[in-house]
Amino acid sequence: MMIKNDLFLRALKGETVDRPPVWMMRQAGRYLPEFMELKKKYDFFTRCQQPELASEITVQPIRRYGMDAAILFSDILVIPQAMNIEVEMKPDFGPYLPNPIRNLNDVNNVIIPDVNDALGYVMEGIKATKEKLNNEVPLIGFAGSPWTILCYCVQGQGSKNFDKAKEFCFTNPVAAHILLQKITDTTIAYLKAKVIAGVNAVQIFDSWGGMLSPVDYQEFSWQYINQIIEALKEDAPVIAFGKGCWFALDEMSKSNASALGVDWTITAKNARYLTGGNITLQGNFDPTRLFSPPAEIKKMVTQMINEFGKDKYIVNLGHGILPNVPLDNAKAFIDAVKEYNA
Ligand code: CP3
After folding, report:
1. What would the pLDDT profile of 39-73 be if each residue is shown by its tens digit?
2. What is the mean pLDDT of the segment spanning 118-131?
3. Is 1's pLDDT higher than 90?
4. Cβ neighbours of residue 100 under 8 Å, at least 6 residues apart?
């Protein structure tokens, strides 16, 4: 099916464009009043599980701002849930896993589910979203990296340093690798099913890759992300986003990923240098900078595009948009890209 606005897909292919495409990580979220309305009525996983709600939330930011891509409303933690690990989303606290994984026995109890069965609601959400989008813009599907999923499974909740997750890997590497491989196998099947259901590209969120040293990153994170990229490369373009993972960009750029996401702690120049200048890059506006006045946001976005270059580039934040960002500031970010003149 032809997508009317295919800027995002063209940037993923590295084609020459008049301006780069733009979307925002976590664009379907708490800065939008229409999102907050639904959040009041339905708990988090209900919003994820009901195709009508998930698709509605997915298209909300597109209707308001006209980003160049939509990202399916869901969460990375639906994967451990499907693997028989209990996950709660506690209001004002975040993810909470009452029975964290701490030993080989726990790992052995983790199942590799039939994704169409356990996560069929996601596929239904994709189909409902595709209908609402009416081929106006592409739809992105996503998953967490195996390492980032392990972080929550073992730590049991968010953390500043994921010390328990790292301790588990370093004291029980055999169990850790069995768990990482189970998550990887599930994620590959899941992302393939998402592509069949209709997503046009997939992004892997390695939100906590930067918690690992460069050597440990290769062992506990990158090798599994790379397995996913290799398995998906014929199905859809893959974007690998590693927060705080600039040290791995050289290695990542040698993969079959179509694009690499970078956060705001690296300059455009260094990101281009480390990736050899050929692969599409995505990022990297500091999400907190969206609290600057709109005029300043616009100036900074234009400068960011000039630094990355308009081609082989997807404008995004360096991490998810924060709650309480004023609506006009989010608009300034999107508009600055749409008004960009090379
Ligand atoms: O980008 C989008 O708009 C699509 C939706 C999306 C959500 N989570 C919805 C969500 C995506 C892509 C995610 C990914 C996700 N979830 C990541 C990776 C990206 C990142 O930000 O690092 C991670 C680490 C999670 C785990 C997670 N889910 C946390 C830590 C939290 C709680 C903290 C918080 O931000 O509130 C969530 C809950 C969550 N996922 C919310 C949303 C909109 C907020 C809670 C709610 O709506 O009730």
Report:
1. 999 999 999 999 999 999 999 999 999 999 999 99
2. 98
3. no
4. 106, 153, 154, 155, 156, 164
pLDDT band, residue 164 (cuts 50/70/90): very high
Query: Which residue puts its alpha carbon closest to atom 22 of ligand 1?
Result: 207
Nearest CA to ligand 1 atom 46: 44
Looking from the CA of residue 323, the nearest atom of ligand 1 is 35
Percentage of residues in the chain with pLDDT exceeding 70?
A: 100
Q: Which ligand 1 atom sits closest to the C-alpha of 35?
A: 47
User: 255 CA distance to ligand 1 centroid (A)?
Assistant: 27
Greatest Cα pair distance in the chain: 58
Q: DSSP H helical segments within the chain, as ranges?
A: 7-13, 33-41, 44-49, 51-65, 78-82, 104-108, 115-118, 120-133, 146-155, 163-171, 173-197, 214-217, 223-232, 249-253, 268-274, 294-308, 327-338
Question: Which atom from ligand 1 is nearest to the alpha carbon of 158?
Answer: 30
The per-residue pLDDT for 342 is 77
Would you call 154 exposed, middle or buried from its count of C-beta atoms within 10 A (0-12, 13-18, 19+)? buried
Instruction: Tell which phi-psi region holds residue 314, choosing left (phi > 0), alpha (psi between -120 and 50) or beta.
Output: beta
- List the residue whose alpha carbon is closest to atom 31 of ligand 1: 94
